[in-house]
Amino acid sequence: MQQQFIVVRQHTENICRPLELEDYVVQPVADASPPKWHLAHTTWFWEEFILSKYANGYKRFHPRYAFLFNSYYDSVGERVLRLHRGNMSRPTVAEIMEYRAYVTEKMTHLLTDMPPEVQGLIDIGINHEQQHQELLYTDIKYILGHNPLFPVYDTNFAEQSTAPVPTEAFVHIPEGLYTIGYTGKAFSFDNEHAVHQQHLGAFSISTGLVTNGEYLEFMNAGGYDNPLLWHSDGWSWVKEKQVISPLYWHKIDGQWHRYSLSGLEFVNPEHPVTHISFYEAAAFAEWRGMRLPTEYEWEAASERFTWGQRWEHTNSAYLPYPGYRKPPGAVGEYNGKFMINQMVLRGASVATPELHSRKTYRNFFHPGLQWQFNGIRLCKK
Amino acid sequence: MQQQFIVVRQHTENICRPLELEDYVVQPVADASPPKWHLAHTTWFWEEFILSKYANGYKRFHPRYAFLFNSYYDSVGERVLRLHRGNMSRPTVAEIMEYRAYVTEKMTHLLTDMPPEVQGLIDIGINHEQQHQELLYTDIKYILGHNPLFPVYDTNFAEQSTAPVPTEAFVHIPEGLYTIGYTGKAFSFDNEHAVHQQHLGAFSISTGLVTNGEYLEFMNAGGYDNPLLWHSDGWSWVKEKQVISPLYWHKIDGQWHRYSLSGLEFVNPEHPVTHISFYEAAAFAEWRGMRLPTEYEWEAASERFTWGQRWEHTNSAYLPYPGYRKPPGAVGEYNGKFMINQMVLRGASVATPELHSRKTYRNFFHPGLQWQFNGIRLCKK
Amino acid sequence: MQQQFIVVRQHTENICRPLELEDYVVQPVADASPPKWHLAHTTWFWEEFILSKYANGYKRFHPRYAFLFNSYYDSVGERVLRLHRGNMSRPTVAEIMEYRAYVTEKMTHLLTDMPPEVQGLIDIGINHEQQHQELLYTDIKYILGHNPLFPVYDTNFAEQSTAPVPTEAFVHIPEGLYTIGYTGKAFSFDNEHAVHQQHLGAFSISTGLVTNGEYLEFMNAGGYDNPLLWHSDGWSWVKEKQVISPLYWHKIDGQWHRYSLSGLEFVNPEHPVTHISFYEAAAFAEWRGMRLPTEYEWEAASERFTWGQRWEHTNSAYLPYPGYRKPPGAVGEYNGKFMINQMVLRGASVATPELHSRKTYRNFFHPGLQWQFNGIRLCKK
Amino acid sequence: MQQQFIVVRQHTENICRPLELEDYVVQPVADASPPKWHLAHTTWFWEEFILSKYANGYKRFHPRYAFLFNSYYDSVGERVLRLHRGNMSRPTVAEIMEYRAYVTEKMTHLLTDMPPEVQGLIDIGINHEQQHQELLYTDIKYILGHNPLFPVYDTNFAEQSTAPVPTEAFVHIPEGLYTIGYTGKAFSFDNEHAVHQQHLGAFSISTGLVTNGEYLEFMNAGGYDNPLLWHSDGWSWVKEKQVISPLYWHKIDGQWHRYSLSGLEFVNPEHPVTHISFYEAAAFAEWRGMRLPTEYEWEAASERFTWGQRWEHTNSAYLPYPGYRKPPGAVGEYNGKFMINQMVLRGASVATPELHSRKTYRNFFHPGLQWQFNGIRLCKK
Are D24 and D83 spatial neighbours (Cβ–Cβ below 8 Å)? Predict the structure, then answer.
């Protein structure tokens, strides 16, 4: 446990290593957060929920940090409004790294002799920090990818594996009752619990993800101009944001490029398309005469295909499983309070840390967001 | 059929009878429409989808009305933006009544000798007009209820039946596979089709609706001040809109009043609470340590309780049933395009026209809307 | 006085005579008001400032009207927010006409035996109502001109006189000290008082107004595409509102048309251009290598040219004359509180009632507004 | 000239010396800019208007910087939108300091053998950089003063001199013709040229500025709650922004504090009030039964009082002097394009660099801005 804790803490810092100090500070859009904030917030979590409660005589690193680095935990105290995070030049990155070192050291010490009732919270803390590692990648990409100079994050960063892309094929899944939810013994989030039966009709699901080449066909066929392919809210989104392509795509001298963490490059038609919103995924599926899977279908079929490079859009709203109850107190705010207005994504992505994925994992976003490494898997019948 | 058509057309006009001419014109909020617009739009539907296609030599009443009274049918043509409907003083109410008479007469004639393939569209037209009858009531209430003079619509209009309110009791529904969707032979919407099996765990559901008195307890216990009871988006909604009570409630001289279509009155603690958003319904349920039913639970249990005065909030997102496919063309826009970002309501309300309700009917609204005659039924376990 | 009062009251109602009842109700933009509101507000003014104070035993027509028809007079009481005026279907037009008749009758009676100290207020009331007559025309034009059916207000309404347009000529005004402000004995507003000396350098001013034909040259020369011609805020206005022509201009089948109160018509190149904002007037002048006059120059030169069909843009901000003091109380809010962020217009327009113009009159609007019958007179040196 | 150039360039950098690197990056409000941007933009000015035109074989430091650091000069090229400046983590501060060194060196070389026709542009460049020095102070204060940790900029920075505050006294200025505008031989801006005569009535003007103590009296007398004291737009501003005190004031434990560049401190009742908008200054004057001076009165009286610590609000709109013509080309955008919707401030402030003030200098801001070191001087009669 101590070992895992230290590895996770270091990984967070390693993700930031290629950055210039200035990159830690900015927040170009309300949905993203400055890397500096992620570094501090994940540290605050340990301080707030574990050290201040279970470490004898623990002295907080700074009296105002609980106010500054709290996120959505309305019950803990006031919050610095999410969209002002990018205006906070202080504390400095150096001060936050000190804060991290201080808390990491105190936690390491606590973990040598941990009260058994804390185990669950520590698991949450580790998984919480891993979730922010994922967000660090997506937010860093947003920061660098919206800079007119298109700075490279890491020339060796591969946004997709070089494994051969499977040819499109559909596997058939028979009608039946399927068990949904996490049944293992390792950590999982409360939103995966409440294991239950789900009756599914027969369906077919693709073994591969939609590629850039296929998505370009949709674009060239006028996909962004045909309201009949879109949800009503999706069409409003296209018009209001003037969307004409996935995020990070740029037409330069007549040629589609995309910004990746290794720099600006040609769009590779064989790579899986990514940075498309739920609305775009659904419109593409409609255009192909198919549909997105539900999260139940995805989970039931997940042994039959390879996944893990792209969070995959589903046509399921993020809602509680039958029998789900929010845990009491501030930790109860972790998942339950977001169970409205969002759609479920399944799988994992190139930004997901090792050991932080499983087939029952439920990620969730508002349907108009593009900044995740997401993708499209199709379903029919 | 001809008879039913005429009855429906007349009912639409009857709903407007108590209005002053000025009331037909205004649109105090983007979500509502002027009564004048409802009168014209329901007429346009017949003209656009039936008369102009199936009535030999049909001459449109006015060349611009297709543009003016189209609603969400993006594929038919340009639209007058929804939020400008209340700025259109012309055509006048008298002109729209002429338009109605003209189309009703042409339709009546067509119905004497109707091509059989039109039957389905006529059913849709009738149900479409009935949906707008419901909206006429809610929009008229919004218009009058937001006027500082609180004008009476009809002193005899009862927003709830005088039948004794059932004492709160919970009925138990056993685990099992339940058939969901419309299996009868009368008209139903495409979103109720695709009949399928749904596996449900055991649960208990209340036979009565939450009353004003119970809701006042929630208010008095600080329900609107406790973020832990609310969804994250719900809490933002409360703060941004400064909501402190159901819609149409006014504290006057220390006493809660509510505007009803029969005028301003004291809040009756025994009546079912209404004009609460999904967010409020969910927060109330959380406060009571219970939850809202899913739409499947509601449908499975619906024989066990009385319903029909309030559209009832469910915790189900409005999504396609397994196997659902949008019908082709503009009529395909009817339901499918709205299957995102909305929650399902089940039942019917005092505004629902006769013969326009059934247990499989799926209504849907964004979770922050209060202007429907909705209500709260609780579930536990 | 009594006679003048009655004439003014009738003229207000006459302006509305060609309207359909529905036209009285709507408010398509926050800057305009529904005709119904103008009818009531001008009546409220008499009730609030004269009848309720000077008519013995006067009984207000309705207890809530002071709340409903108050405008900007923050010190009198609460206000119904300006942008909700168009949502008020009640009181009805008929009720407001009753209100008018009631107040007109009481006032007529009071005027037979008027306390001498009221004279000044009555002058203000008459001039106040005349200002709203002007606004009635501009707001009616906005309502009808933004209706997709382009309804005619009055086929005989001439937006410009048929007198021959003067050929462009410039008259020279010598350097000197000029007296500015109203020195006569009839009514004038406080903002014209504080007569003072203004030193002006020599300048030349055009005897004619810029015509549609000249303005079309500006448009065809790319005037709306060249940021160097515009104020910084003006350029933002052009971009944000996507302005490409004066208000009410429509290019139909390749031909410029304009909506006038007598209906849609071809743009007549010899008529004076109108419905252009200050920003457009200033950009046009810049393009011509000239400038707009200041209000002092305009007043000093006003005997040398014909004016009265168009309010004329000046390059003067609406500020107090030296020595100006706001009158005490609510009437003091009449002019002084608007002396910021607005530009002065001089002259009068086709919408101005008889006897309501003089060379010292100061009208004022925000620089981005187009809905007045305004125009451009040029100055050089 | 070379010497002056070097001193100015160094002063810009010196102002930033106390900052942490993170402070260079952020932009907490659209009206402020990141210090990094000021450092680069002032450098770009030299490169764009002088080096690229007059230095033989000059090679731009970076091909994209003209795009990134252009400000309002619409005619030079595209602009990075003003409100995205704070999202640009690259170029880094180190890169911008290199850019500065490169341009300073090239300029220094050019200045040893300068073509005479460049003199005027160099004067503008120096004064332009000095204006940004002033903005650096105000923007740094905004950045630090809006940080919840209230970091100190420089413990020795005095926001006001320790010279004794003059007791309030009014000096009388007689009626007459006064010469307005710059008549000297040193550099001045085009907006001060076009020297002309202005006729002024007699008036009295205060020799001292309004103090915090006096302003507290206004606050305690309900100044922010009385609409009769405010312009209409000012009252909307108070309500919308919920203003209850000058900027940077905080009531802590019942005691008014203010953030200054030397840290959080008690409000000193004897210091001149600052960080109040034009609206607040005008409301205060109204409350005192006095008024703000016009810019002409200020200039005519300026020998009679001490000024230089606070930019002083006037009741004059920022408009061209009689005979003013915009210079041709991009430099012509410098002043003329802002001559709308802004009010003139006169004097200078603690943030103004040495040699950058004179009695004819015209500064200008929108009336709702508080972030300048401004102040109130009163006038009567």
Answer: no
Q: Which residues of chain B have pLDDT under 70?
A: 72-80, 162-168, 329-333
Please state the rounded mean pLDDT for residues C46-60.
95
Which chain B residues touch C22 with a CB distance below 8 Å?
21-22, 24-25, 36, 89-90, 92-93
pLDDT digits (tens, 9 = 90+) for D218-258: 999 999 999 989 999 999 999 989 999 999 999 999 999 99
Identify the architecture of domain D2-145 in CATH. Up-down Bundle (1.20)
Q: Are D343 and D277 in contact (CB under 8 A)?
A: no
Tokens of A321: 């499983």
Alpha carbons C287 and C291: distance in angstroms, whole number: 9
Minimum Cα–Cα distance from D80: chain A residue: A148
Q: Which amino acid is residue C212, in one-letter code?
A: N
Backbone angles phi, psi at B212, to 5 degrees: -55, -40
The type of residue at B232 is: S
For the residues C18-22, what does the mean pLDDT come to? 98
CB proximity list for D17: less than 8 A, separation 6 or greater: none
Got the DSSP string for B211-236? Answer: BHHHHHHHHHTTGGG-GGGS-HHHHH
Q: Are strands A311-317 and A374-375 parallel, antiparallel or unpaired?
A: parallel
Q: Looking at residue C132, what DSSP letter applies?
A: H
ipTM given for this complex: 0.94
d(CA D171, CA B321): 83
**Quick one: tokens of C239?**
């971009």
Tens of pLDDT, residue by residue over B230-252, are: 999 999 999 989 999 999 999 99
- In 10 A of CB A65, how many CB atoms? 22
List A200's β-bridge partners, or say none.
A176
DSSP per-residue string spanning A337-349: GG-SS-EEEEE--
Q: Do D89 and A23 touch (CB under 8 A)?
A: yes
Half-sphere exposure of D26 (CA within 13 A, CB side): 31
Helices first, then strands: H and E counts in chain A = 10, 12
Domain chopping of chain D, boundaries: 2-145, 170-246+272-380
A contacts of D23 (beta carbons < 8 Å):
89-90
Please list, in sequence order, all residues whose beta carbon lies within 8 angstroms of the beta carbon of residue C206, skipping any fewer than 6 positions away.
Answer: C168, C169, C170, C305, C377, C378, C379
pLDDT in tens, B35-72: 999 999 999 999 999 999 999 999 999 999 988 898 75
Instruction: Tell me which fold the domain A170-246+272-380 belongs to.
Output: paralog of FGE (formylglycine-generating enzyme) (3.90.1580)
**Between C and D, how many residue pairs show a Cβ–Cβ distance under 8 A?**
92
List the alpha helices (DSSP H) in D1-51. 2-16, 35-46
Q: How far is CA C269 from CA A174, A231, C210, C212, C273, in A?
A: 75, 47, 10, 5, 8
Per-residue model confidence (pLDDT) at position A74 = 61
Output b/e per residue, A350-374; b: 16+ Cβ within 10 A. bbbbeebbebbbbbbbebbbbbbbb
Chain A residue with the nearest C-alpha to that of B283: A337
Nearest residue to A169 (alpha-carbon basis) of A305, A27, A63: A305
Task: Please say whether the beta carbons of B159 and B350 come within 8 A.
Answer: yes
Q: What is the DSSP string of A300-311?
A: HHGGGS---SSE
Partners of D92 in beta bridges: none
Give the span between the Cα atoms of A86 and A26, in whole angstroms: 5
pLDDT at D277: 98
Tally C-beta pairs within 8 A across B and C. Answer: 90
Distance CA A317, CA B340 (A): 8
Name the CA dihedral angle for B122, B125, B129, B130, rounded to a multiple of 10 degrees.
Answer: 60
Q: Compute the 3-state secondary structure of chain B and give helix, strand, coil in percent, each to the nearest 5.
A: 40, 15, 45
- d(CA C43, CA C125) in angstroms, rounded, equals 9
Q: What is the largest CA-CA distance in chain D?
A: 66
